[in-house]
Amino acid sequence: MSARLELENVCHRYGGDEPALENLSLAVEPGELVALLGPSGCGKTTALKVVAGLLRPTAGDVRVGGLSVVGTPPERREAAMVFQKPLLFPHMSVAQNVGFGLRMRGTRKEEAGRRAEEALRRVQMDGFAGRSPEELSGGQQQRVALARALVTEPRLLLLDEPFSALDANLREEMRELVLRLQREGGHTTVFVTHDQEEAVILAGRIALIFDGRLQMYDRPEAFYDRPATREVARFFGATNFIEGLAKNGSAHTPLGDLKLGRPAPPGALTLTIRPEAVRLEGGENSFRARVISASYLGTQVHYELQTAGTALRAALPPHVRLAVGDEVTARLPAESLWVLK
Amino acid sequence: MGKKGGNLGLAFAAALVALPFVPLVLWAVAGEWRFPDLLPTAWSPRGVAHLVEPGGGVLGATLNSLLIGLATAAASVAVGLPAGMAIGGYEWRFKGLVIFFVLLPILVPPLASTMGVHVTFIRLGLADTVFGVFLVHLVPTVPYTALILAGVFSERTGELEEAARTLGASAWQAFLRVTLPGVLPGVAVAGLFAFLISWGQYVLTLLIGGGSVVTLPMLLFSAASGNDPVITSALALAFALPAVLALVLALRVLKPGERAGGFVGPGKVS
């Protein structure tokens, strides 16, 4: 059944087309769903293939259930993978596709067929058992691929951008399906995606990777509230960066002296604040600003505020209506200011 | 162009192909056909009877041709499959050079190389034997099968095999259960090509067989250089028929217009 997965200083270099990995270390608890997130070419798929055994790391160790699997071929890792394309075997029926993994494990034909039907029911594809893969739509094919991976009761479930080829509605439906199946089955799951929204919705923890290096590994909300670096913050949509100098509990910045929620070591620092946390009120950490642009997004209005020496973005509820050119007082609450490394 | 126009074009093309066969069929069953007559003036079963005549040698020659053709096809695929897989499926050093060597037998005139092969075969006792003829037929067929299968393998990405591996298939099982069924149409085409090349071979059979291994083309050539159009036509039909049949069958089974294996497209979105 599901197992703990550990990667320790995994490196992958000079692997032809595969992006490199540099000292990737992370642990996935049994039954946890972790997203490997990053821009395309950052090495997240390489990491997944190393876990699956399709690529051999040039250094480092991969452990499943505490035992190293670096020398284990993919077929003995019990790490079923679902790819970006459904990759159904075109010469087999839907049921034969789903039963493939069981047959490879020596399960009898009748038993494999029965369990394949059951797995198809779980992905709402019952009644398609006798069909040929090419008769199915893209979304249906990907459901079958999911059933084909799950039916083997893998110790690890590896998903490599499985919904990126589907359209938006279908993608949402498939996300819910994966969440439900993962919760029911309790599979240790690693999910590769370049879509931060998808990672936030699905994952218990997110491992953010840039250029083959792990940037941050934490719960989704931490990427908004406590980003490790400016790059991490920017990847999660942060645009407000304020340079300053720290001195006993506050920061000297172009906006004036800002009080900090947590003490920072003295010296140069960069502050960030979510656009949603910016308040239109006076008090501590407030300053005068001018609205230079407004964009209405339905549930929110995004304003760009020009202040002494810097521009800030504020996201406000739609009932606050400001016009371009308005002078306002804005406040950055100390508890929402985050000091970047 | 409308469907009607397309059908008309198709009929024209079919007529163009079929037309040369009409006098062959007429001659094969003719008893007497002299110059100004548009059709034979008398009919005779002599030509057809010659084909199945027990002592006539046609049956034996057909059997030889079949045996050598099938063996050649099988051996060409057996050699061409790994070669095609290596050339089409993987990148490695000196690949261009190896491709050049694989193609060499169809670049060099077969007569030139077979002269040398003949000397060697005499020394090995392979000259004048069916086995020797089969071996020399591989010279022109292997390059073709290797090339066709290289094309088949170059279209495969290896992703299906990767999926199979993570589902619990060993490398060997993935090859047998996933790769092989996927390339089967290509293998069939390559085998058919090899068979047809062998079936039509005259020069190589004559050189290595030395006249003791008699195949259909040998009979056909000697009849054509004689002066009996009835026998020649009957033999020509017997020679052409299996090839046409095999081709029609292959086209029907393989449907070359459709994609042969590999990635299943996203299809229609529900």
Structural commentary:
The complex is a heterodimer of chains A (341) and B (270). Chain A is built from 8 helices and 19 strands. The radius of gyration of chain A is 24 Å and the shape is elongated. Chain A folds into 2 domains: 226 residues, P-loop containing nucleotide triphosphate hydrolases (Rossmann fold, 3-Layer(aba) Sandwich); 101 residues, Nucleic acid-binding proteins (OB fold (Dihydrolipoamide Acetyltransferase, E2P)), CATH 2.40.50. Helices cover 25% and strands 32% of the residues of chain A. The mean pLDDT of chain A is 92. In chain A, strands 6-7-8-3-9-10 form a 6-stranded mixed beta sheet, sandwiched between helices. In chain A, strands 13-12-11-14-19 form a 5-stranded antiparallel beta sheet, with no helix packed on it. Chain A is of the alpha+beta class. In chain A, strand 9 and strand 10 form a beta hairpin. By secondary structure, chain B is an all-alpha fold. Chain B has a single domain, classed as MetI-like (MetI-like fold, Orthogonal Bundle). The chains are: A alpha+beta (341), B mainly alpha (270). Chains A and B meet through strand 6, helix 2 and helix 4 of A and helix 8 and helix 9 of B.
Chain-averaged pLDDT of chain A: 92
Percent of residues in helices of chain A comes to 10-25%
CATH superfamily membership of the largest domain in chain A: P-loop containing nucleotide triphosphate hydrolases
**Average pLDDT number of chain B:** 87
**What is the oligomeric state here?**
heterodimer
Question: Structural class per helix/strand content of chain A?
Answer: alpha+beta
**What is CATH's topology name of the largest domain in chain A?**
Rossmann fold
Examine the secondary-structure arrangement and name the CATH architecture of chain B: Orthogonal Bundle
* Euclidean distance between termini CA atoms of chain B: 33 Å
User: Main sheet of chain B, how many strands, which sense, barrel?
Assistant: 2 strands, antiparallel
What's the Cα radius of gyration of chain A? 24 Å
Shape of chain A: elongated
